[in-house]
Amino acid sequence: MRVEVRVDAADSELRSLLSWLQRDPDIRRSAALQLREAPPQVGQMGTTADVLQLVTENGWSAANFVLALVAWKRTRPRDPAVTVRRDDLADALTDCSEEQISRIIRLLRDEQGEGGEGTGR
User: What spatial distance separates the first Cα and last Cα of the chain, rounded to whole Å?
Assistant: First the structure.
């Protein structure tokens, strides 16, 4: 499964999230994380990180990932807008309410053995 996380803030925020998730042993063990970079804009030197991409197969825990994402978001001095996407489904994590957390966990759960209300195969 491929999951993308977009943070509507500076490139450094996305890199901060990557570092945060890499320090989580459960996520590090069950997923490959990488930044995907956007091509440079006109007049811009170099590239900027555009999306954090997470690829996982067995042993994936959507709940652990979402809780780590929420914990990171709560540490940020400015509250960045975060969007989580799987396939053609996406949801925004804005206020980190129980309802939003549950919705995003359901969005990420699928055929990876977690059940839930995901799209399945």
Answer: 12
